[in-house]
Amino acid sequence: MSPSGSPIIGIRANSAQARTLRSPEELLGAGLVEREQLPAITHVAERYATAIPSAFMELIETPDDPIGLQVIPSPDELQTAPHELADPIGDDALSPVPGIVHRYADRALLKPLLICPLYCRFCFRREHVGPDGGLLDEEALTVAFRWLRENTAIREVILTGGDPLMLSPRRLEHIMRELASIPHVTTLRIHSRVPLAAPEKISDALLDAMDTDKAVWLVVHANHAREFSPAGREALKKIQRRGIPVLGQSVLLRGVNDSEDALEGLFRAMVESRMKPYYLHQLDPAPGTARFHVPIAEGRQLLAGLRGRVTGLAWPTYVLDIPGGYGKVPLGPDYLEPSLSAVSDPNGQKHTIRTPDSL
Ligand SMILES: *Cc1c(COP(=O)(O)O)cnc(C)c1O
Ligand code: SF4
Asked: Which residue numbers delimit the Radical SAM core domain (predicted)?
């Protein structure tokens, strides 16, 4: 049902076409926004990129469901809360050359483009990502590759953006080959939403481009079990057949996955797709995202509720990227008492432990 209570006929009618909805008028035509909202949504769209690819569109049943909330712009995005920051995790200050972000000694981010298959309404880089910006040209790429070659402590290059799997296979292959040829780089990691959000893009040519002699890991961003469509799961399988391990990363989001059942469903869907839940992120305070905020105390309680209820394979690390650029840290829940001499079990009962630490 649409916000006014009428069924959304446009959604199913449009789903046959493999195209991406972008403009406020297209969203209106698809029944995702109300006509009265159009002026406000137009303001939002002028400020923040919007895209809903057809594979994701087909998963939306109502605009306020866990899929719709992630991608449909809201007038609330024009309200910046006092604690929100344009560059919440301090990437800009840590960029030695364009496209590189270097915070940890052994690894660096490379952002070859700022295009995504869809634009998450809670994106931590929402002030930067979009369809018409940020593609590193040949010259900028050369400078970035040179920086990586000169910094011999870098073991791992993390391709992010934007979404690296939105690159053409030819361009991605060029980047992957170049990175793999750096002697001290042992590991390449790609962060992407493409396999589930736009599975038709996982072509043989793109798979060839991802496949290098160095270890390649893929981290797929997904926030709800319903994102695991048959086509998406098939795309993941194709990637795994290339020997690429797949991890999952999610953001804890109000209205999307803020219940034990939703998180259990999400992490079980990942495990069933041979994907290890890696991080559950606390929401970064990007502008206009307060409607998605779940307090840390609640996040810890949700994870504590899952402990003992789901397989350890379905247990991510709950992390906060400390606003200002101080790095990612686990947020618990904790089971060890500060004294180090007692622990709680998954049911909350305390037990004294005798270890060398407690003697
Ligand atoms: C998140 C992030 C990484 C990767 O951190 P992991 O804990 O290894 O996943 C690396 N560099 C920067 C700048 C980051 O923000
Ligand atoms: S896929 Fe990542 S970078 Fe792109 S909009 Fe979503 S959170 Fe932002």
From this structure: 102-314
Catalytic residue among 111, 120, 126, 201: 120
Measured in angstroms, how far is the CA atom of residue 102 from the centroid of ligand 1?
A: 9
- Relative to beta strand 342-344, strand 350-352 is antiparallel
Average of per-residue pLDDT across 274-295 = 97
d(CA 118, CA 343): 43
Cis peptide before 333 (omega within 30 of 0): yes
Tell me the pLDDT tens digit for each residue of 14-42: 444 468 999 999 999 999 999 999 999 99
Specify whether the CB–CB gap between 344 and 350 falls below 8 A. yes
Q: Which atom of ligand 1 is closest in space to residue 104's alpha carbon?
A: 11
**204 labelled as ligand-binding?**
no
Asked whether 281 and 249 are in contact (CB, 8 A), the reply is yes
Residues in the chain: 359
* Residue 77: pLDDT band with limits 50, 70, 90: very high
The percentage of residues in the chain with a pLDDT greater than 90, rounded to a whole number, is 88
In this structure, are residues 192 and 221 in contact, taking their beta carbons and an 8 Å threshold?
Answer: yes
What domains lie within the chain, and their CATH numbers? 9-78 (no CATH), 92-329 (3.20.20.70)
pLDDT at residue 10 in the model = 43
74 annotated binding-site participant = no
Reply yes or no on whether 321 is catalytic.
yes
From the CA of 321, how far away is ligand 2's center (Å)? 15
